[in-house]
Amino acid sequence: MKVLVPVKRVIDYNVKVRVRADGSGVDLANVKMSMNPFDEIAVEEAIRLKEKGVATEVVVVSIGVKQAQETLRNALAMGADRAILIEATADVHTDIEPLAVAKLLAGVVKDEAPGLVLCGKQAIDNDMNATGQMLAALLGWSQATFASELAVEGDSATVTREVDGGLQRIKVKMPAI
Question: Which domains does the chain have, with CATH numbers?
């Protein structure tokens, strides 16, 4: 089974964000960028699935600027097998909206035919937590949000989710997000 992991390039979580002098947005000049920490967790889980023999290939994909190559290289260094970059903008100040990202990811999913897409819980730059759910809706796939544990068994996956009251265990049919 192939696992696809979308990864986003964000301002490093250790950097103090500065607003531009004109107040029009975040100042990105000379700012360290890195992989979204929640996406990094998803890449690690995909690699664990490969090490267990559940996954055969881990493919990471990033949508955004050319500089996202660095983020993809980090994922490859972690153990991902392949990386795909969709250069959707040349301007580092342009953030691609979640629905546009989900539509582009849907195209990648149709081409790559993964059995599982592991998305990070949310991006630390906009905290929207929308792309994974939109992708599931576009594809008509099962989804399990806020996953803290994953076990793949044949054509289904058991997911332990973090919910307000504690933990919830659900079973979803594969392919799933």
Answer: 2-12+30-142 (3.40.50.620)
